[in-house]
């Protein structure tokens, strides 16, 4: 599969590395060159320096032939915008976005986006661990 990931923070880098090791063609976009250091020297994918909501940058990353897309920056607004561009403009079949604000998650799901909320996931896990 061809996967485009926007955001090369800790989560983006871990996802990109795991997908690359599993044999997928992965391209990571980030606006900070230093962020690519998280990928390590054995990363077999492509790195694009730029803004993940810029359509030209997304085209350079190969979004027009992507099977999957993940927006994993630390900003909800950027993530939702990138996800909508991937889904609506480029018709990527599988689009996932990370949302920190759990209140926003329902709204984004109503828009038809697949969301992951580390805030909700973490709270649920802590709750389950505490109640035993």
Structure description:
The structure is a single chain. The chain contains 5 helices and 6 strands; from the N terminus they run E-H-E-E-H-E-H-E-H-E-H. The protein has a single domain (2-131), classed as 3-Layer(aba) Sandwich (Rossmann fold). The protein is globular. The protein has 132 residues and is α/β, with parallel strands linked by helices. The mean pLDDT is 93. It has a 6-stranded parallel sheet with strand order 3-2-1-4-5-6, with helices on both faces. The chain has helices spanning 10-21, 55-60, 76-89, 102-110, 118-131, and strands at 2-6, 25-30, 46-49, 68-71, 94-98, 114-116. Helix 4 (102-110) links the parallel strand 5 and strand 6.
Features:
Rossmann fold, 132 residues, globular, six-stranded parallel sheet, alpha/beta
Q: Low-confidence spans: pLDDT under 50, at least 5 residues?
A: none
Provide the helix percentage: 40-55%
Order of helices and strands: EHEEHEHEHEH
- Strand order, largest beta sheet: 3-2-1-4-5-6
What is the assembly state of the chains in this entry? single chain
The dominant shape is globular
Q: What would CATH call the architecture? A: 3-Layer(aba) Sandwich
Q: Per CATH, what is the topology?
A: Rossmann fold
Radius of gyration, in Å, reads: 15 Å
Strand percentage lies at 15-25%
pLDDT average, as an integer? Answer: 93
Count the strands? Answer: 6
**Superfamily (CATH H level) name:** NAD(P)-binding Rossmann-like Domain
The CATH class is identified as Alpha Beta
Helix/strand-derived class?
alpha/beta
Q: What is the count of DSSP helices, taking H or I runs of 4+ residues?
A: 5
The separation of the N and C termini measures 40 Å
